[in-house]
Design goal:
The complex is a heterodimer of chains A (about 325) and B (about 375).
Chain A (H helix, E strand, L loop, with lengths): L27 H5 L8 H9 L3 E8 L7 H13 L6 E5 L7 H4 L8 E3 L2 E3 L1 E4 L2 E5 L15 H14 L5 E7 L6 H9 L7 E6 L3 H16 L4 E6 L4 E2 L6 E2 L8 H9 L3 E4 L4 H9 L3 H4 L4 H29 L1
Parallel strand pairs in A: 1-7, 1-8, 2-6, 2-7, 8-9, 9-12
Antiparallel strand pairs in A: 3-4, 5-6, 10-11
Chain B lengths: L7 H4 L1 E8 L7 H14 L4 E5 L7 H4 L8 E3 L2 E3 L1 E2 L6 E5 L15 H14 L5 E7 L6 H10 L6 E6 L3 H17 L3 E7 L3 E2 L6 E2 L6 H9 L24 E5 L11 E5 L4 E3 L2 H12 L31 E4 L3 H9 L3 H4 L4 H16 L6
Classes of the chains: A alpha/beta (about 325), B alpha/beta (about 375).
């Protein structure tokens, strides 16, 4: 059986389908035929489309259930509090699209116009797109293999009429697979500002998140930083802190030190977060003074600072 | 049209259980691990197949990281945890040279590996093969079910948390099961609640109601939440009325397992008619689906006589949030062996018990 995973020369390289490590790969014939050699025209189209989008942020995690969608939604809410900022939230979790529920948009449908698909607007300055809006029933399962999922992501990036956007936030599913490769490839020409990686304190999460950090480095995706979610629980009755997910191996703090990535913040577990997500409301409105809210706000500020710094560095480069 | 896999390597497996969830992070690997440990404690031979290629958690949960996989004449030898070979594991985690290296594969390559996992691992004779899956309804799941289909998988245990956001994804998984012909044996609601170790207040950290909602959508009964029904050998929340069921397996010296009921006022009733009457009354309030005492008590059902036939499968259970459980899994310890007195132990073993009851005994 073939070893796991050897270096694939890349579908678009001259060695595609012909290299020693291609033997036994299910895509070998496809690559050898040269199908991967021609770049996908969609990449240029998406680059054009993304010209009206100032900043693009991916929210990733190797691990499921750590709070990517929760974080993406609240990053969007937080940024959209400035009415002069236009925010777009794109949910590319095709199998488990949670964003419509968390944003209170369940049951909404997408409309086509001459200029493409219209996102669903929560506020005037906050538009959302998800495969959830394309499904007619909450029970519909999206049982798609990789290539079909990739096609959907391409459409989301190319055919949605976002308009002028300051921040595009992309919420991803767990893992390091088709969806992640596709979004990075399709946005390659359009420049992604960076990725925010979410984890919980557990080693079971961290071991997957380390893989995600390595994935980002492999595909040259800048890492804005890591957010440690569910970091401690304050009992609402006695106010004492407990660790529901004990950081047996040092938590995100140690991992960030080891891998030299910034730790953006540690968000405690507040039962109101889950409740508000279930109701489709912003947690910031329900619990403005919660330690979780304060931590979220400081993380959002650091993300904005990162994006502004990137932008000014680029402008300096162009002007020099 | 691919040729059917060699029957050899899966022919010795009596029952296959898929552990599924549309949602990530609900505890599939946790439940798979604890189910395997509980089934082992019930004297069964268990294998675990971890088909999560991007995030293989199973090796760590058994303390087996870094173990090597060897070839034998029938294919790959699974990793055995002990000399008796009572638990065997296979995961892509064992095949990675560097544990931090990401498996960044697209669908077709994942499908190919899963097919090999299913057909080329020399499991030998097993009572149960537990298949731990990644979140979603995509390549890995379709490849696994297609590869297992000739062997008629027993069914699936679907895991959720109490949150509506989780139910939103997991109900799509139920549709997936319907469409692919996989029978849903039960719904497990994980992370049901957290009991503060300082003041014993039970908080619904991840909302409430998800397990019940999902069981309703799946058309199976739901047993109860951790705050209402507590299974365990002693009351963790002294002020709340509760019914404790001690289901203790036979001890190391061979003493018989007990079945006893204690009430909050510390009166103890042994398994007699008063107990059964009590349980029937509680059932009437929707507290129980079915209850079984170890080792040999008859099944009790709603309203029936003591000799009533076993009730239909009531496949559900609630597992509370338990940092000791989390810690055991991080460090690869056997939680079932180490914490037999905790409510979490009772919840997990009761789920295992239901699986055992649902699977007909094979005659030699």
């Amino acid at each position: 059986m073939e070893e796991v995973p050897h270096d694939c020369p890349g579908a678009d390289s001259a060695q595609a389908g012909r290299g020693a490590s291609c033997q036994g790969c299910p895509n070998q014939r496809l690559c050898a035929s040269g199908a991967g050699a021609t770049p996908d025209p969609a990449i240029e189209e998406i680059k054009e489309k993304m010209k009206t989008v100032k900043h693009k942020i991916l929210v990733l995690s190797g691990k499921g259930g750590v709070g990517k969608s929760t974080f993406s939604a609240h990053l969007a809410h937080g940024l959209a509090e400035d009415e002069n900022t236009q925010i777009a939230l794109l949910d590319i979790d095709i199998c488990g699209p949670s964003i419509p529920k968390i944003m209170g948009l369940e049951g909404e449908q997408v409309h086509q116009s001459g200029s493409g698909w219209s996102p669903v607007y929560v506020e005037d300055n906050l538009g959302v797109m998800s495969v959830g809006f394309l499904l007619s029933s909450p029970d519909d399962a999206v049982i798609w293999r990789g290539p079909k999922k990739n096609g959907m992501i391409k459409q989301f990036l190319r055919d949605v009429d976002w308009g002028e956007v300051d921040y595009l936030i992309v919420d991803t599913p767990p893992g390091t697979s088709d969806e992640h490769l596709s979004v990075v490839q399709y946005l390659a020409a359009a420049r992604i500002d960076g990725a925010v990686i979410i984890t919980t304190p557990q080693e079971v999460s961290l071991q997957d998140v380390r893989k995600e950090i390595n994935f980002c480095r492999k595909v040259k995706l800048p890492i804005i930083g890591v957010v440690e979610n569910m970091s401690g629980f304050i009992c609402p009755k006695c106010k004492k802190e407990s660790q529901i997910f004990p950081p047996t191996t040092g938590g995100a703090e140690l991992m960030c030190q080891d891998l030299e990535v910034p730790l953006l913040g540690r968000v405690p577990l507040d039962p109101l977060i889950g409740k508000n997500c279930d109701k489709g409301q912003s947690f910031f409105i329900d619990a403005p003074d919660s330690p979780a809210t304060l931590t979220y706000r400081s993380i959002i500020q650091r993300i904005q600072e990162f994006c502004d710094l990137r932008q000014s560095e680029e402008e300096n480069l162009i002007n020099s | 049209m691919e040729a059917a896999a060699e029957p050899g390597n899966l022919a010795g497996i009596r029952h296959i259980i898929l552990v599924l969830s549309g949602k990530g992070g609900v505890g599939k690997s946790t439940i798979s691990t604890e189910l395997a440990l509980a089934l082992r404690h019930a004297g069964k031979k268990v294998g675990i197949l971890d088909v999560d290629l991007c995030g293989p958690s199973i090796p760590r949960m058994f303390g087996a990281q870094g173990r090597a996989v060897h070839q034998c004449d029938r294919g790959w030898a699974p990793v055995f945890l002990d000399r008796e070979q009572s638990i065997s594991l296979m995961s892509v985690g064992f095949l990675l040279e560097k544990p931090d290296e990401a498996v960044v594969w697209r669908g077709p390559k994942k499908n190919a590996l899963i097919k090999q996992f299913v057909s080329d691992v020399a499991w030998g004779e097993l009572d149960y093969l537990v298949v731990d899956t990644p979140p979603g309804t995509s390549d890995e799941h379709m490849a696994t079910i297609e590869a297992l289909r000739p062997y008629q998988p027993l069914g699936a245990l679907v895991v959720t948390t109490p949150q509506a956001v989780s139910v939103g994804d997991v109900r799509r998984e139920l549709t997936f099961c319907r469409k692919t012909g996989v029978r849903v044996m039960g719904v497990v609601e994980n992370m049901s609640g957290f009991t503060c170790p300082h003041c014993t207040e039970c908080t619904s950290v991840f909302s409430r109601g998800g397990g019940e909602e999902l069981a309703r959508l799946a058309g199976v009964p739901f047993l109860g939440e951790c705050s209402k029904l507590v299974l365990g050998s002693r009351p963790p929340i002294p002020s709340l009325p509760w019914v404790g069921l001690t289901s203790v397996p036979p001890g190391p010296e061979g003493e018989e397992g007990m079945g006893a009921v204690s009430l909050s006022r510390r009166t103890t009733a042994t398994c007699g008619s008063s107990t059964r009457a009590l349980l029937k009354a509680l059932y009437g309030h929707g507290w129980f689906g079915c209850v079984r005492f170890w080792p040999a008590e008859p099944m009790l059902g709603a309203g029936g006589a003591d000799t009533a036939p076993p009730p239909p499968l009531c496949p559900a259970g609630s597992v509370p949030l338990d940092p000791e459980l989390t810690r055991s899994l991080e460090e690869g310890h056997d939680f079932i062996r180490e914490f037999p007195g905790s409510p979490t132990f009772a919840a997990l073993t009761s789920i295992a018990r239901r699986i055992l009851d649902a699977t007909p005994t094979c005659l030699p």
